[in-house]
Amino acid sequence: MDTNNEKRDNRKRKARERQAKRRERRAAMASSVNDGLSKLSHLKPEGIPKPVQRGFSVALNVAQDIFWHLRHRTSFWKIIVGIVGAIVLLFFLSLFFSANIGPNISTMGLGLGGMSVEAATAQLENTFNNEMRVNIRLHGRQVGSVTASELGIHLDAQATAQVAKDAGLSGLPFGHQVEPVLEVDYGTAQNYMLSLVNEVFIPPYEAGYEWREGDVVAVPGRASRELDVVLTVQRIVDDAINIMVQGQLDLLTTTTQPRMIDSTPYLEEARAFVNSDLTIIGYDPFTDEEQQWQTTREEMARWLVAGVNGLTVREDGLERFVEGVNTLLNDGDNPRYLNEELARAALVQAIDAGETTVQVRINYLPSVHTIVRGETGFSIGRSTGLPFRLISDANPSVDWNQLIVGQEINLPSRDTVVPLDPISDKRIVVDLDRFYLVAYENGEIVFDWAISIGMRDAPTSPGIYQILEKVDVAYGSSFNLCSDSGCGQWQMDYFMGIYEVAPGLTNGFHGAVLLPNGGYLDGGSSQVRSTFGCVMSDNEVAVQLFEWADVGTMVEILSDEFAPESELARQAVEFMDAQNQF
What we know:
This protein is of the alpha+beta class. Helices cover about 35% and strands about 25% of the residues. The relative contact order is 0.06. Residues about 40-50, about 90-95 and about 480-485 have low confidence and may be disordered.
């Protein structure tokens, strides 16, 4: 009993002590505040309203109590730390178990923090497909800008958003970039690179020459620039993420060194050529006409290049000159042109031979013919000088039995029947209506005599052709020579083929025809329709024509369907009429 009284007395005593100490602290605090207020000359303690003084005193008391507990009771600290920790823990748990992507998470510079996976997927798809572009760079210089899909780079937006979600709280506090999930279509990337090949390509410059200030100067060679398609595509495949993050792709190139770097060894030859009076002559084998074209010393100098064995012509050097000439030639019903490759070859040959005159053949382009009333495929061939077989081959879908007025058909190039280099100083003119032949050399008549031509059911084709081949003795046959015992052959002396009737069957010039029975075709007579399409001469003159004509000699065959095109042919008609034989 006494013990309980003692405990109760102790508690009372301790309570009185705490109250006394509390009064002491309040008195000390009040004294401190009053001292501070007395130092303010413009503000006096008695000037503060009493309610404010009471509120201020209460706040001071609370602050003093808290300060005292912080100093004397560690358990108070633990309570505060626990509360703060609980708040922080709750915050992180809410983020950890949230369905949204964690804070400060991004990919390719696009922030995804706080988004749901679905929202992030939609945002990624829209931005990647519509806004993000890749700058194409060549040797550090931007040359284009394309979308990722044009490069074959595709984003798996949903997978990328899930990766961002799985990154959790790794974005705290400084942020975190996740790698996008990308796929590369090799074929698309390759096709895009192939589309850039010509744009990137700079051919090697072979050591050549230029005309500067009235003289020819040597220009050193330079290496080429070529897009390395394989390596650039492989870079896209291997480094797609960095390409998209950085927004740029550097193209990879290779180089090819020119064959010649130094052109000074042939500088004097180049000067001599450029300062020569070069004449370029275009020859039309159909009209037997020539055209001359002029050029400049600046252009001539650009043509030249130092070759391995001497001075030659740059492979693309004549391009500008030929384009200018073709602008003049490509007009009329029979559009014509110069072949750049043939022109270059002729110029190289002239340089090698030290000649100042270059002859270049004028070629013909394909054309279109419009059907008029009464025309047939056969008559079109005879009026255009193109064997019907060639016209038919150029129009595989045309029904030749149902031609319509106004219908357009394709005509092949006239060059088809003149495939060899033409001999310009010799020309043979044949008139099918007059059964006569005249041969010219350098504009002068060297031969003329009567001939026989093809029968009506195997006519000789009018047109402009050339000697394609020469055979001392040739053989032929026809169903007319067939019997129960087989088909016989005829023998033709001094045969010269001029045009192909069918594959492997050629019509041409020849002498007498020895038949299988030992006799001669039509008894060897002239000026009759007796052959199967060839032009037949008596043997004693056929041999002269055979020995005089060269392969490539032009042959102009006239008829009432095909008028003369060359001046020599017109002269031949006048000569024939003057013989008073027709």
